[in-house]
């Protein structure tokens, strides 16, 4: 019970901080989505956050999401937030009818596979976020690097929207996690992923 109440209280704090960051950046609070990343957390704790009014949750592992989704309300908007393997696309989409988005899409082959599976299942269109590597290599975190990446991603979104002839408001920008989601929102992020700040430290199985 303590874990459920703690997560619900933490959610309210995160949402308030996100709204304040949006206000500082001149954006409407409703334009920012907070994805509560619930990997390794039990269904009871996720349900507690749901009962507190939240509807958007993220998971990193296909089988964990397939196992959890049927045990929770159908109006949850699930996000899969890890690079997806092509051979797991059908199982994920079939097993989680209320999967709303696949984040971190980094391969055209996976995009085509998802498109085919959506058509085969006759389900509603699936939203995706395309992963952009702004530095060309894996880098450690620093505030200056974060600012550089934020500017680079915002510039990339503008280029894509200009090429497609659509307003930037129709193209989401996802950056920011527990440690920096407020800064990310101030830099223009419309989708932030917050896990440990809401749910606490991850609970991985102990190895024998």
Task: Provide structural commentary.
By secondary structure, the chain is of the alpha/beta class. Helices cover 44% and strands 13% of the residues. The chain contains 8 helices and 6 strands. It has helices at 2-24, 43-51, 62-68, 89-95, 108-121, 143-164, 181-186, 196-199; strands at residues 33-37, 56-59, 77-80, 99-105, 127-130, 191-194. The chain has a 6-stranded parallel sheet. Strand 3 (77-80), helix 4 and strand 4 (99-105) form a beta-alpha-beta unit. The longest helix is centred in the N-terminal third of the chain and has 23 residues, at 2-24. The chain is globular. The model has no long low-confidence stretch (mean pLDDT 91).
Question: For the largest beta sheet, what order do the strands appear in spatially?
Answer: 5-4-3-2-1-6
Question: Largest sheet, described in full?
Answer: 6 strands, parallel
Strand-residue fraction?
Answer: 5-15%
Helix percentage: 40-55%
């Amino acid at each position: 019970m303590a874990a459920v109440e703690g997560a619900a209280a933490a959610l309210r704090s995160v949402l308030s901080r996100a709204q304040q960051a949006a206000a500082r950046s001149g954006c409407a609070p409703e334009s920012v989505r907070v994805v509560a990343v619930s990997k390794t957390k039990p269904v009871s704790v996720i349900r507690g956050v749901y009962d507190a009014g939240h509807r958007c949750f993220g998971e990193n592992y296909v089988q964990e999401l397939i196992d959890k989704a049927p045990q929770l309300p159908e109006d949850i908007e699930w996000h899969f937030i890890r690079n997806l393997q092509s051979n797991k696309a059908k199982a994920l989409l079939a097993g989680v009818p209320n999967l709303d988005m696949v984040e971190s899409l980094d391969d055209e082959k996976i995009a085509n596979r998802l498109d085919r599976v959506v058509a085969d299942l006759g389900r509603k269109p699936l939203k995706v976020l395309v992963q952009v590597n702004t530095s060309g290599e894996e880098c450690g975190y620093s505030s200056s690097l974060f600012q550089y990446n934020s500017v680079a991603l915002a510039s990339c979104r503008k280029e894509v929207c200009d090429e497609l002839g659509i307003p930037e408001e129709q193209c989401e920008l996802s950056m920011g996690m527990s440690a920096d989601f407020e800064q990310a929102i101030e830099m223009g992020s419309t989708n932030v992923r917050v896990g440990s700040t809401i749910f606490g430290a991850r609970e991985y199985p102990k190895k024998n």
